[in-house]
Amino acid sequence: MRRELRRTTKISIEHKNSEEERCLQAVDFVAGAIYHKYVFGDESYYSIIRNKIQEEIRYLP
User: Fold this and answer.
1) Of 33, 28, 31, whose CA–CA distance to 45 is shortest?
2) What backbone phi and psi angles, to 5 degrees, belong to 56?
3) What one-character-per-residue DSSP string does 3-60 give?
């Protein structure tokens, strides 16, 4: 399943301090866990969230 944004979709990006934004801390943890799994082969943090992931699609070789 491929999803695309319509060209009329407006995206706003803001920089936030993760110490003040709890949700940002959670997203940063998830992104870091996935990054370390694929880049370094380190699944120590990924294993914490593994059972929460519903679908995993690898886009890059």
Assistant:
1) 33
2) -130, 120
3) ----TT---------TTT-HHHHHHHHHHHHHHHHHHH---TTHHHHGGG--------
Q: Note the pLDDT of residue 60.
A: 67
pLDDT digits (tens, 9 = 90+) for 17-32: 888 888 999 999 999 9
pLDDT of residue 33 exceeding 80, the answer is: yes
Contacts of 13 (CB under 8 A, 6+ apart): none
The whole-number pLDDT of residue 11 equals 84
Cα 34 from chain centroid?
A: 7
Q: Is 34 exposed, middle or buried (0-12, 13-18, 19+ CB in 10 A)?
A: middle
